[in-house]
User: Fold these one by one.
Assistant:
Number 1:
Amino acid sequence: MAAYIPNPSPVQSNLKGILWMLFYAVAISVMHTSIRFVSEGMHPFEIAFFRCVFALITVAPFFIRQGWAPLRTKRFPMLLTRGVINIYCMLAFFYAVSIVPLAEITALSFSAPIFAVVLAVFIFKEKVGLRRWSAIFVGFLGTVVILRPGFQEFSLGQFLVLSSAFAWAICIIIVKELGKTETSVTIATYMSLVMAPLSLIAAVGVWVWPTPEQWFWLAFIGIIGGAGQMAMTESLRSAPTHVVSPIDFTRLIFIATLGFIFFDQVPDGFVWAGGTLIIGATVFITYREHQLGKALKTPIEAVP
């Protein structure tokens, strides 16, 4: 007679989801710090290529257990579209990481879910009430606080971060639709398979052969990034989105600490104030969508 194994309580599931999301926040913060370090001797486009290649290591165990099942899909065109859009996200974001303070990049990247809500209004004709529109306004106000138009020049790096966040918002919409029929392993696998050759095209013109030390860091970036993505998936599988998504915003604290330790970067008050507004708006929107039964089952982060 098989032993009875009770299902975990909601509290246990929520705690598990929170811990997975915390691991994700740490992993992605470490990955961004590593990218900044490696970009001092290698172009970000080449780093992006190796990020895609080495990330495949994290899904290899699923192929060992399931064979070719993760590649079976009837939605290849949508998976391809997601990969094409996502490669712009990655290339733009990685380049921005090499030229913009890490905390500022992270704070601006949190605007992606806000863009996603606005896009959903036009794509899915979703109705957005006064409270969510107010939160959207607060989120964009936070972006303005960080950018301070009229008081400082709008830099290339800031443009790349915001355009990457907008493109990632489109990916969130696509993944939301893919999640109805495809597993997270299938989605993650096709993302890397589509993005690897596209990123190679971008990397060819700036290619330099990595040194032994750079090989280590490139493998580390790919593996820690892939592990972080899988942790985020497990987090969303274990607990509701509105429970775990606020934990993602600890990335701003982690990345600010790492940026200060390794690159002597000190975020100014505008970054913290704007980041707080963006985070607060995103948390409210996520909670409000949960109340309305529309919580996204997709990553909250804007990190490719």
Number 2:
Amino acid sequence: MEKKPIQTSQAPSAIGPYSQAIRVGDLLYTSGQIALNPGTMEMMSGEIEEETEWVLKNISAILQADGMSLAHVIKTTVYLTDLSEFARMNQVYEKFFAKTKPARACVQVAGLPKGAKVEIDAIAHI
């Protein structure tokens, strides 16, 4: 199958040798997103709620660039630097996936790029 890179200026540019997302057949795989402002590439650091909102908006922009929305997401992985912030992250996450809740894994990690508190990647199906 052909691999098609997906790129949009509405989400942060890659900060390494990777694509924002790759489409293979009916599936779209996003790279992990952190709370980077796509216009300035500055971290929008703050409380976990703010970072989670930025991350999900960035994922949504990538999906839109390929004609999809968050409703197409079938699986996410959430990476937190502090699992004690899980409930607060989850309150924001739930607002973005109110109707269609994808499968999900959540793990605590020692650190994330640019000092982020949360990173999320997604798999979507169209």
Number 3:
Amino acid sequence: MPNHNSRLELGTLENWLWDAACVIRGPIDAPKFKDYILPLVFLKRLSDVFEDELQQLAIQAR
């Protein structure tokens, strides 16, 4: 069992994340996977900015 006070090395984390992405991606090649992920990242960013703008408008309207 890992020690909770030990630090995770960056290389280990990168390998874990890459392995997780490969499991999620399935049979799709890594370069083609970006065709699915980049639009989702863009929509997430767009949604976050929209929410921030709504909050600023709500504060200004008070």
